[in-house]
Task: structure prediction
Amino acid sequence: MLGKKFATGIVSALLVAVSGCFSMAAADNLTVDGKNRTMNVYAPKNIEKNRPLIIQMHGMNQDAPYQQNAAKWEPIADTARFVVVFPNGENKAWDISGNKDVNFLKAIINEMYNKYGIDKKRVYVSGFSMGGMMSYHAANKMGDMIAAIAPCSGGGGASTSRPMPIIHTHGTTDDVVNYNGTVNTLKGWVSYEKCSANSTKYSQYPVGKASSAASLEVWTGCQGNSEIRLLTIAGKGHWYSMDLASVNTSEEIWNFCKRFSLDGATADPNIEPPFVEPTNRDSIYNGGFDSTANAWTLQNHGDAKSTGTVKNGKYNLEISAVGSQPYTVQLIQHNLRLEKDQWYEVSFDASAAAARTLEVNVEQHVDPWASYLKNGAQNFDIGTTAKTYTLQFQMTAATDTNSRLSFNAGGATGSITLDNVSIKKIEAPAIQEPENPENPEEPAAIGLNMNWSNGSVRTFDVFDFAGSRVGQVKAGSVREVRDQVKMLTQRAGVYLVKSKNMVAYKVTVK
Result:
């Protein structure tokens, strides 16, 4: 347990260091030991029974809405199907020495069981700062009810009744809860659980992610098949890390905790060991959505709201509230390597519950998120029947080892289904000069397939000279091709037109 002197000093430091936090009305309440206790509860729509529960506690002088906003658990919970509770401590603090808040946590577990049928063998407790200290206190006081804990920036001594899996996250420049002191306390848990003295260290985590300031130390061989992890973030102060350049703390917590249950077995036979996304790769990972959404991140910005699930080998995106821009709802895969001057083709299958537009972009994964497509993000008209869509582009910027593909769907509500997403290197599109010497602007001989005379209407994809897809045109004659391209582009220039199984040919618009 924490010594009284140590705990008192930390509490005093927290009171001084943290201020100005906002509060919101609680979403739910309980009567515990004769007192009204409040909490925010997030449960995915139509959640099944026997799903896990995560309880995450705020820091001192903070509250449930503050922690909920900081940790952004909702898209993870929607995809993995579990309940998250953000309780409010009395006077924005936690009882880390007595039973007052232990009884509150027990009441939350029972309430979530009665309301949602949660799996009591898969309850995980987490917290930031003083909430992290409360996580350790709960592990010691109610270890028979908690499958794993995930403290952030807050420590506590070991006296639990059973070996407790732990993932602890901490920044090295934390000036409120000292990093080195807390790490020494964590190593006391390593000894208490009789873990192997030889840990495995990853100097950069995720492995191969050059931008990450995080490292990972793992102790295995613990009693009861437990495991202890220390996730260190160099240069990080006293706050909950959601730094895309390093690690998403909430994702790391879930990927660790989901492996454990009170019976000691892997909680869900369909859940694989913790996923480490391959980095610096030149292809899409898990583009077929065979069983999970691994490597894909769903983000909601501003007022936009959406949820994503993987069903029957497809990704189903449900947008319930629109934002001010399409990118307010983004399904993203990053860690992609794009090489300067190389040509690429993006391909995906898509359909929607009702006809709509879907914006697609290939861009930087960090601010300023510059697009690598010649004319920026491209719009695709998605229908109710699944269809394959493609775009081609040349990487004209410097080689980027952490670029991303993003599907932006915040412009309209409704559902979208995605599958078979890929990005691959291609040869530069072949460009042939017009073959009509009398009128070089006229595409009178743009390949044999365009020399038709039966009056049928054909469809052509139109690209600019950087390889970015501008759109499609339909023409009933050779002459009409140029006119349609002019109407589509609305500006002079040289464009490439291409029908199925054709090379690209040049059309000049004045």
Q: What stands out?
A: The longest strand covers residues 414-426.
